[in-house]
DNA sequence: AATTGGTACAACCGCGAAAGC
DNA sequence: AGCTTTCGCGGTTGTACCAAT
């Protein structure tokens, strides 16, 4: 009943990729496109398993990858996204164009973890280490924005002085599993990005085209307020998390 | 110059989910 | 409906590189 191995290990190379292997993989994908990783190695004349080819392409060879150091903005965005999503590296990577999940995961483990520890923040919970030591319960936290909840009406309304929210925060037995849902536009004002209403696809970052009708309609009022990539999922790029689209079960 | 310890990152492994039959 | 195959994800490991001693 066990799974069959993804490849015949006796006849596959392992370890670092050679220039020739890279060239073969690039050439094959350029002419045939991505897909069917299992059969790709044979078709491309590579003695590698499909998984290895996929990883090499996604993490290293893809032409749209942004190589080089992470910027301070990217750092902060990763921290915010991690506080929200946890170790969902692929989701986090989806919000950072040109970055891969593997790259972000490595960067988190080598740089950001230490950076947060130096700030006195537990990288796992995003809470102050002192606070975490006193409190033996485990809670979800949006520490990065919680600091500002006093002065920020959006976060304050959601989890600030609200007694119920405080109870939830101190009671780990409550089911606080996050669920992402479309913005509730009836209950609240339309989701805005710098004053412009966006369609759901743009709000979720699924639609990045400048020509999306919602963007065309909102041109003029959005100049300079959206992120460089043209979307602002959960309001993260504005520096304030917008929790209206997030619900606890 | 050699050794050691720490860091960065590419690559591997195992698992779960989705897709296909 | 149930089984098998394939893909994608997250955790972990291996190793090259660099700085300190």
Overview of the molecule:
It is a single chain. The protein is 42% helix and 6% strand. It has twelve helices and six strands. By secondary structure, it is mainly alpha-helical. The model is unreliable at 1-5 and 136-249 (pLDDT under 50). The strands form three sheets. Strands 1-2 form a two-stranded antiparallel sheet. Strands 3-6 form a two-stranded antiparallel ribbon. The protein has a two-stranded antiparallel sheet with strand order 4-5. It has helices at 19-32, 40-44, 50-61, 72-85, 89-94, 101-118, 129-134, 143-146, 153-159, 163-170, 200-203, 213-218, and strands at residues 121-122, 127-128, 178-180, 192-193, 196-197, 246-248. The chain binds a DNA duplex (21 and 21 nucleotides) through residues 1, 3-4, 6, 14-17, 36-38, 50-52, 54-56, 58-60, 87-90, 101-103, 105-107, 109-111. Keywords: DNA-binding, Nucleus, Repeat. InterPro entries: Homeodomain-like_sf, Myb_dom, Myb_TF_plants, SANT/Myb. Residues 9-61, 62-116 form the HTH myb-type domain. It holds the Pfam family Myb_DNA-binding. Residues 9-61, 62-112 form the Myb-like domain.
Form type: elongated
Please give the oligomerization state of what you see: single chain
Please, what is the average pLDDT? 63
Q: What is the number of helical segments per DSSP (H or I, 4+ residues)?
A: 12
First-to-last CA distance: 36 Å
Largest sheet: 2 strands, antiparallel
Q: Which strand order do you get reading across the main beta sheet? A: 1-2
Q: Which parts are unreliable, with pLDDT below 50 for 5 consecutive residues or more?
A: 1-5, 136-249
Structural class by SSE content: mainly alpha
User: Roughly how many Å is the radius of gyration?
Assistant: 22 Å
Q: Count the beta strands.
A: 6
SSE pattern, N- to C-terminal: HHHHHHEEHHHHEEEHHE
Helix share bin: 40-55%
Which band does the percent of strand residues land in?
5-15%
